[in-house]
Amino acid sequence: MKLTTAGESHGKTLVGIIEGLPSNLPIDIDFVNNCLALRQSGYGRGGRQKIESDKIEILSGVRNRLTLGSPLAFQIVNRDYANWQPYMAPEGADVSQKRLTKVRPGHADLTGVIKYDQTDARNILERASARETAVRVAAGAIAMCYLRELGVQISGYVKCVCGVEDKAFYPFERLSEAKEQPLFMLDGELQKKAMQLIDELRVAGDTAGGIVEIRVKGLKSGFGSCMQYTTKLDSILCGALMSVQAIKGVEVGMGFGVAYKPGSLVHDEIYLKDGAYVRTTNNAGGIEGGMSNGGEIVLRAAMKPIPTLMKGLNTVDISTGQPAKAASERSDVAAICACEIVAECVTATALAEVVSARLGGDNLREVKERYSRLP
Predict the structure, then answer these.
(1) For the residues 227-237, what does the mean pLDDT come to?
(2) Is 82 known to sit in a ligand binding site?
(3) Which pairs from 241-245 meet CB under 8 Å and 24+ separation?
(4) Is 90 annotated to bind ligand?
(5) Binding residues for FMN, per the UniProt record (predicted)?
(6) CA-closest candidate to residue 8, choices 120, 93, 126
């Protein structure tokens, strides 16, 4: 299974192509669109989300809501393109307008301009934008449709917003409650505190990041491999999360905490109970030796504060070489809820690729039969 994406933030459309899906997989379009809506939600978002109302349009590979086994192509139309067509149209555009030369710290602007020999950071930021994650959410929701057929579930919540941290550990069944909250947090008092902080940052022209926790339940053991470093499951999942714009750190299970404790308090001891191997703790986060061990997979990703600040950061105008204040391209203060949804979906896509690689199968019946035979 493989996902390819294309499209610019203010271009005509965002496009995705998924190869390798088995035939006869039911595609829940309403579920996909709900995930897209959740990506646009959350306390601290800006005006762009009022312009766009993302919906998936499947172009090929599906008939009567069932996959055909051929590549599944889809698009998410950018409604804002109507306002940007004079400046973004591939057929011809006025590129002297909407130029961005006051490159923004923390963005791809300056490095991209140098790498791709540009004089306008617009040619970089349009693709580097987090708008691209809409495609990955749609693809990830389709991957969840695939994983659900095998009994594998993915969920998550916001664990921290700019230092306001929830240190509790919640059962998987409670995680879905987070999506009903304005900031996807499960502790009401901490959520109020975080929302107040976001309000203060908005007044100050500043931004916030945070931490999201993603959990996977129901995956059998043996996915991933210890034989090649490129096939280690934790490497694949962490790499997928690190590919998301603004993610600067990922940990599995106890994560960085393992460096502060002795081995006797880190490693999950193994017991034999009723003929089955069991662990009473899950510090490994469901992955040992690069392979799933049958326990819940626990992942946490750290999102940096949005680097476009309304008050602007010190930078250089590349057209003049003079000091300047960085341009403001958006007005989000916090996009941590969007980050949580994106993190769930990229985890689903990466996991579906791993599962598909092991199980193979041209149709869903074959895939399910092969998975049912695994211990």
Answers:
(1) 97
(2) no
(3) 241/214, 241/299, 241/301, 241/343, 241/346, 241/347, 243/346, 244/133, 244/136, 244/301, 244/339, 244/342, 244/343, 244/346, 245/128, 245/129, 245/130, 245/132, 245/133
(4) no
(5) 127-129, 245-246, 289, 304-308, 330
(6) 126
